[in-house]
Amino acid sequence: MKKILVIGACGQIGSELTPALRNVYGTDNVVAADCVYPLKGELAESGPSCKVDATNAQDIADAVKKYNIDAIYNLAAILSAKAEANPMLGWNVGVGAVLNCLEVSREMGCSLFTPSSIGAFGPDTPHDMTPQDTIQRPKTIYGVTKVTGELLSDYYFKRFGVDTRSVRFPGLISNVTLPGGGTTDYAVEIFYAAVKGEKFVCPIAKGTYMDMMYMPDALKAAIDLMEADPAKLIHRNSFNITAMSFEPEMIYNEIKKYIPDFQMEYKYDELRQNIADSWPNQMDDHCAREEWGFNPKYDLTSMTIDMIEVLKKKLNRQ
Questions:
Q1: pLDDT digits 0-9 by tens, 40-69
Q2: Mind spelling out the 3-state secondary structure of 65-133?
Q3: Of residues 67, 142, 156, 298, which has the active-site annotation?
Q4: Do 213 and 173 contact (CB within 8 A), yes or no?
Q5: Contact yes or no for 144/138 (Cβ under 8 A)
Q6: Could you tell me if 309 and 315 are in contact, meaning their C-beta atoms sit under 8 angstroms apart?
Q7: How far is the C-alpha of 122 from the C-alpha of 170, rounded, in Å?
Q8: pLDDT beyond 80 at 91
Q9: Catalytic residue flag (residue 142)
Q10: Mean pLDDT of all residues belonging to the chain
């Protein structure tokens, strides 16, 4: 990769992946693009930026041409709970943006990364050690768009030779970006409540396991996969990856080791709970480890320590 376009640069992943890419490839070689424009803060100040509506193929093509782009990270998405509230928007962004990026990549010779999700699985999928290759029958529009994106990306690779690559992200936990309507967002919200000294009302029922990952590991995975030797990739769209699997009581008890007075009660959200129940308890990610060396650094303990330390500074709660 020489010149990179990050679509959805202001989102949960993009706001952190863009600076990470600039650290690796140089500030002038990574273009931050979003439908919200002009960009503000570090994204605007640390490198080039432009307006791109991912549902408009011409916007993408214009940016690729203007900046001589050879790799696209398509991070445009409507997360699971929000997509259920507006299925048509979820489809238009979740599938329309992918197809637009694929067509532009085919026409202009770009490689393409489009993240998938644990949401690509459904209630008929094996929940424990979910295989890399298994039944995918999601019951949410978010999941349907992710499966569609995986199939389209594989098709464009096999039919047209487009270098498409993807991972199935688990729930992502960040100390930078606030949650944006995902089912796993409770695992971010709980840290903010704890550091602020507030009681946390958990929308996910006790005993509900889901795969999770700390954002630094997610960023490294996205970059590492795009740098991987294509000759070693048996799979492409998409790789299971995970760093930890836990249920609410586990993360609560881990936080209490460092904030003993922290309290939590349960008041589950039916929509989010139904979505969570349809997802894997834990994915088998051996293919990613074997084919391109995926190896996450953070587990629940080390992530909790870092999250609390960073948020205390961020929220002035020392």
A1: 888 888 999 999 999 999 999 999 999 999
A2: HHHCCCEEEECCCCCHHHHHHCHHHHHHHHHHHHHHHHHHHHHHCCEEECCEEHHHCCCCCCCEEECCC
A3: 142
A4: yes
A5: yes
A6: no
A7: 14
A8: yes
A9: yes
A10: 94
In sequence order, the 6+-apart residues with CB closer than 8 A to the CB of 224 are: 292, 293, 294
The residues of the chain that CATH labels 3.40.50.720 are: 4-169+214-240
The encoded tokens of residue 219 equal: 């960023």
CATH number of 171-212+243-314: 3.90.25
CATH number (3.40.50.720, 3.30.365.10, 3.30.70.1230, 3.50.50.60) of 4-169+214-240 reads: 3.40.50.720
Tokens representing 26 are 């140089």
**Residue 46, both tokens:** 């640390």
For the record, the structure tokens of 291 come out as 């084919």
All CATH 3.90.25 domain ranges of the chain, comma separated, are 171-212+243-314
Cα torsion at 309, 312, 315, 318 (round to 10°)? -150
The residue whose two tokens read 């094996």 is 126
Give the C-alpha separation, 183 to 106, whole Å: 33
Q: Dump the DSSP string for 131-173.
A: -SS-----SSHHHHHHHHHHHHHHHHHHHH---EE-EEE-EEE
- Taking the C-alpha atoms of residue 10 and residue 263, their distance in angstroms, rounded to an integer, is 32
Question: Residue for token digits 């489009």?
Answer: 114
Check pLDDT > 80 for residue 78: yes
Residue 189 β-bridge partners: none
- What one-letter code names the amino acid at 311? L
CA distances from 293 to 16, 213, 274, 296 (A): 22, 16, 33, 10
Q: How confident is the model at residue 317 (pLDDT cuts 50, 70, 90)?
A: confident
